[in-house]
Amino acid sequence: MNGLIDAAFSHTRVVMTALIVMIIFGVNSFNTIPREAEPDIPAPFILVTLPLPGVSPEDGERLLIRPTELEFQSIEGLKQMDSLAFDGAAQIILEFLTTVDVDQAVLDVREAVDRAKAEYPSNAEEPVVTEFNLQNEFPILTVMLFGDAPERAVYQTAKALQDKLDSISGVLDARLSGAREELLEVIIDPKVLESFNLTEVEVINAVSANNQLVTAGSINLADGRFAIKAPGLIKTAADLMSIPVRVNGDNVVTIGDLGEVRRTFKDRDGYALFNGQPAIGVEISKRAGANIVETIEEARAVVKREAALWPATIRYEFLSDQSVSVKDNLQGLTSSIVTAILLVMIVIVAALGLRSAVMVGVAIPTSFLISFLLLTVFGYTLNMMVMFGLILSVGMLVDGAIVIVEYADRRMAEGAPRRLAYAEASKRMFWPVVTSTATTLAAFIPFLFWQSMPGEFMKYLPLTLIFVLLSSLVVALIFLPVLGGLLGLPDWMKKKFNIKGKSDAPTKQLLVDEVDPTTLDGPVAIYARFLTRLVRRPLLVLLAAGILVSICLALFIRAAPDVEFFIRSDDEQLNLLVLGRGNMSEQQKIEIVKEVSARIEDHPAIEHLYLQTGPALGRDRDVPAETIGQVGVDLIGYTEREHSSIILEQLRDLVQDVPGVIVEVRQRESGPPVGKDVQVEISSVDFDAMVRAAKKVRAYADAANLTVNGQEVPAYMDQEDTLPLPGIEWSVEVDRELAGRYGLSVQQAGGVLQFVTDGLLLDKYRPDDADDEIDIRIR
């Protein structure tokens, strides 16, 4: 290693140029590195959604889940498979080992789904395979559109805004919430249909036959070649009304003769209210590795630019702006880092003096900037775990620099030239500094092999420490000695101003090894004499150390501090989940959710309230299945209110006695997702036995109590389960033999039932003013 150090001192210009280049690139990396609140880690979960309109949970399990699960069993690295069937679709959640490449797992899942599709019913829709991402679980920004405008105007405005936001490079997806899909509806009077002696099958066949893309080709004539166009697709309601259903001579019965055709929206299966007004939300999620602050700033700019073109009756508000918390957290951690650097510098000045402290102080920002460069090169982001790592490293990264500078000062005090003193310090202290850094890194390297979701989340901390300490090692052994050898005052300046430097000491100096520290004065002498007495009594020192350790352990056990997996940080968003059971209509659900909202709307810390109902809420993997509604709470700024954990308890007290429902108040988890504190999973080949066991566990959890400060309190709160939900279901059984006597089939009987429910699906069409296909349904 001496050759490396000699080469550095022989090529000082190259070394200093490299240092300056690294600092410049480090500054650029700090300014451009993506910023986010928490590490964006690849979660080993994949969600498979299998839609089949109208399918019951029992049939969904038999027709969709079973054949798909059989194909999934052969996928390598699959850890766990959970399935859920509900009305109209089924979901399968796949958990893989953390060592599995998620991208490859997605490809394997898609191939397995393609194989299983051959077993699905013919009317099943295309399965959707989604990679679960922690950053996408919660939107980084929600844009709420509301006002006195008609629903169609708000919907079309939200769709146009969605397209604009999707075009932003950092946006992964912009989803609409609270919006109803459009529908071309044919309302037919059954008496009219009967009077023409028509059946619904004839209507379906007529619409399908007249809503086809006809590729007529082209024709060659003497004067040229011409393409032939035969428009056959439905584009407007008038096209649908003119479709003939039956022709008898000159008499033609069209769809328009059978009833009314109108373009409307699907029946409401949920509500979305913003501060009491109907609204549509545009929820924005970011791409992995994108800068959350820049993405939100660009999204805000797009919204403001588009809003200038909207009618005055449509207004907008921003909710759940994650960039605010990211900025606040990073600014707070940055202030903590600056404070830590100042405190370290104060200690170094007190111990080594101002001149040496300046040399050591150079190592702190230089090491940090090189670390930012390494983080950017390896594709990492700047998040709170990285900032915590920087705070921890402040005191450690100066150790090597202190050793080098202190040794160089000692050699200069003995009369050695500055350049020679720093070169010798780097050579003599090379292995001690390397060994000291290696032992520190050895304590953090095992965290890199923590194979789990928490391990993937926590690895940013040891990675940051490794980058910083390796950077500080290079700075202390290469850059700092070369810089120290160059920064001495020139001889002409010393002579002119009569300045005495450390290298201008007398030729004869006492060496440190020749001095007995116990004969000196001051704190060093006191410490030396005290240490001398302890060395002479080793058994007494060991006994005292054992007693001290025992006392610490006893005090820790007696204190019994609360144990948490991750710190409870403040959050500006809270969620109130309204849980209820029974056959409630959507109107009944929203009225209950409104009652919950009314109880908390006067709380001084609440800025906005966002109410949602609908079946999609209960299908979220982290939300109880009996969830009938949700109240999203946006809090005011942190400096104007109490901590969110205190507000959470206050809101829980306000909604604990809402009749007929249970209200669960939640705050988003900090750190890697781990779910609730106690989770019990029961599996069995006997479904009825499994249900009985689950009910026993739930009954125990509901009844369990603990004694705290002499009072009996419930041991658990916010219990939930995945037991089948109770409710009333109407079942229509068709006598096939009797139906056959009347010339009917099960399909025709089912079609008649759909007339009075969601409407019978005739076909789909794509109008000129819509990007998506719209259902054509008959009622």
UniProtKB/TrEMBL annotation:
Residue stretches spanning the membrane: 332-352, 359-380, 386-408, 429-449, 461-489, 539-560
Any one Gene Ontology molecular-function term assigned to this protein's record: xenobiotic transmembrane transporter activity
Annotated signal peptide: none
Keyword Transcription regulation among UniProt keywords: no
Coiled-coil residue windows: none
Alphabetical UniProt keywords: Membrane, Transmembrane, Transmembrane helix
InterPro entries noted in UniProt: AcrB_DN_DC_subdom (IPR027463), Acrflvin-R (IPR001036)
Cellular component GO terms, alphabetical: plasma membrane
Protein name, as recorded: RND multidrug efflux transporter Acriflavin resistance protein
Organism per entry: hydrothermal vent metagenome
